[in-house]
Amino acid sequence: MATKKKGGAKKEAPSSMGRKTGVPADRSSSGGRKTAAMMIEPAKGKLGVMVVGLGAVATTMIAGVEAVRRGLAKPIGSLTQMGTIRLGKRTDNHSPRIKDFVPLADLKDIVFTGWDIFEDNVYEAAAHAAVLQPETLKKLKPYLSKIKPMPAVFDRYYVKRLDGTHVKKGKSKRDLAEQLRADIRAFKKTVNRVVMIWAGSTEIFLKPTAVHQSIEAFEKGLEKNDPGIAPSQIYAYAALKEGVPFANGAPNLTVDFPAMIELSKLNSAPICGKDFKTGQTFMKTVLAPAFKARMIGVKGWFSTNILGNRDGEVLDEPHSFKTKEESKLGSLEYIFQPDLYPDLYSDIYHKIRINYYPPRGDEKEAWDNIDIFGWLGYPMQLKVNFLCRDSILAAPIALDLVLFLDLAKRTPELRSLGIQEWLSFYLKSPETAKGLYPEHDLFIQSMKLKNTLRHIMGADLITHLGLEYYD
Ligand SMILES: NC(=O)c1ccc[n+]([C@@H]2O[C@H](COP(=O)([O-])OP(=O)(O)OC[C@H]3O[C@@H](n4cnc5c(N)ncnc54)[C@H](O)[C@@H]3O)[C@@H](O)[C@H]2O)c1
C-alpha cells in the first residue's frame, strides 16, 4: 500500500519548518526547485538482503549490523544511520537524521542470506577474514553461525586464484540462472522485500560484446554458455528478472551494459555503478576536486597499495588486477576534464599498483605521491599515506547501498529509472545514462544524493546560492 510521504506536506503546513520531517514553506528560501511529494511505499516488514560472496566485506557488514542492533557498537561510516540532511534555510536550524527524513528499512528488520563457494557459515568466514576481533565475533557467534551460504554459481575461468567446492551444477548458464532465481523466490517467501549485493571476488577483465547488447542476446548467450557471461552477470540477471535491486561492490562487468540496463528498467529493479569507493579512490575523489577548484596543475599521480587479505590475493592475479585498475583509473580523468584545462591536466602520469602482502591482512596501507604545480608552473608535491582497514570502510557502504536501493525500489519515480545515479557517492565507477559522463567528485556526489532525497520527499533542493540572507 502506498502512503503519502511525510516530507511532502507543503500544502498542509504552509509556513511551518519546525516539524521533524517538514519541508520549507518558502521556496525562495533555498533557491531550490519544489517538486510534488511522491508516493513512497513504507518500509514495512522484513528486508531480505542476499549477499553474493560471504568474505571480508560481507561478514564485516553482517556482524556490524548485528552488533549495532544489540547496542554493542555504533554504525560509524554509515550515512543512512548517522547522517543528517539540512532542510530549508541555514537559519532554520533544521537538519533531521536521514533515516528520520526518508522511510528507510530499520536495521532490526534486515534478514541476511547469501551464497559462497566455501561452506563456512558467516561466523567461520568472519573469523577467517580476521577483520573483527575474536572477542567481538564471539559475542555474535550464535547469530552469525546460523547464516549458512547457499551453493554458488562459480567458474574458475573468471577468478583464477580461487577454487571452491560449494558450487551449483547446471547444464548451461541459463540453467544456473534459473537455480539462482529459485533461491531468490524461496527467500522472498520468508521476507517482504529483497535486495541483492555482489561482495564476491573481482572477476577477470571483460569488455561488453554482442551478447551484452540486448536482453534477447544475453538470454541466448546464457543458453549457449557464452564466455562473455561471468558468474556475477548470472546473479545480476537472476536478481533483475525477479525485480530485485542489485548493487555491485566489485569492479567486474556485471550490470553496466545495455541488456542489464534494459532489464533493470523493464522490471523496475534499480541498479547503480560498481566497486565500493573506500580507501585510495575515496581520497582521490576528495583531493582531485580540490586541486581543480583552485586551478592547481597535476603532472603525476602514483598510487601504490599493500594488502594481504583474500581480495589482495585475487587482485595479485593480472586478469583480476586489470579489472580493478580500469575502475581505479577512471576517476581522475573525469574529474580533471583535461579537454577543458589542457594547461593543467593534459599530461598526467597516473600509475596504480596493488601488491599482495600477507602480513598486513585486511589492514591495507596506501601511498600516493602527487606531483602538482602552481603559479608560473612551480612544482610541489603532496604525499598521502593512508593506513586504512579495507572492510571497515566498505561495510557501511554496502549497508547504505542496500538500504538506499530498497528505498529506490519503493519510490515509483526512482525505480522506473533503472540506474540510480544518485548512488555514485559510494562507487568507484558510477553508472550513468548513455552519453553522460559520470560525476566522481565526492562533494558533487554527496549533493546529488541529498538533493535526490529532498526531491523524492517534496522538500526544496539546496543550491547553496545564499543571496537571500543578504536581502
Ligand atoms: N574492501 C574494500 O575496501 C573493497 C573496496 C572496493 C571493492 N571491493 C571488492 O569487494 C569484493 C569483496 O571483497 P572482500 O575483501 O570481501 O573479498 P573476500 O575475498 O574476502 O571475499 C569474497 C568472497 O566471495 C566469494 N566468491 C567468489 N566468487 C564467488 C561467486 N561466484 N559466488 C559466490 N561467492 C563467490 C569468495 O569465496 C569469498 O568468500 C572484492 O571484489 C573486492 O575487490 C572491496
Quick summary:
This protein has 471 residues and is α/β, with parallel strands linked by helices. The chain has helices at 56-69, 79-82, 98-101, 122-129, 134-145, 173-188, 215-223, 231-241, 258-266, 280-293, 310-315, 318-336, 342-345, 390-410, 412-415, 442-456; strands spanning 3-4, 39-40, 47-52, 110-116, 150-151, 193-198, 246-248, 271-276, 297-307, 349-356, 365-373, 379-387, 427-429.
Question: Which features would summarize this protein structure in a list?
Answer:
alpha/beta, 4-stranded mixed beta sheet, 16 helices, globular, 471 residues, 7-stranded mixed beta sheet, 13 strands, single chain, binds nicotinamide-adenine-dinucleotide
Task: Tell me what you see in this structure.
The protein is an alpha/beta fold. Helix content is 36%, strand content 16%. It is built from 16 helices and 13 strands. It has helices at 56-69, 79-82, 98-101, 122-129, 134-145, 173-188, 215-223, 231-241, 258-266, 280-293, 310-315, 318-336, 342-345, 390-410, 412-415, 442-456; strands spanning 3-4, 39-40, 47-52, 110-116, 150-151, 193-198, 246-248, 271-276, 297-307, 349-356, 365-373, 379-387, 427-429. A seven-stranded mixed sheet has the order 5-4-3-6-7-8-13, sandwiched between helices. It has a four-stranded mixed sheet with strand order 10-9-11-12. Strands 1-2 form a two-stranded antiparallel ribbon. A hairpin with a 5-residue loop joins strand 11 (365-373) and strand 12 (379-387). Helix 1 crosses helix 14 (390-410) and helix 10 runs parallel beside helix 12 (318-336). It is globular and about 65 Å long. The protein starts with a strand and ends in a 15-residue tail after the last helix. Nicotinamide-adenine-dinucleotide binds next to helix 1, strand 4, strand 8, helix 11 and helix 14.
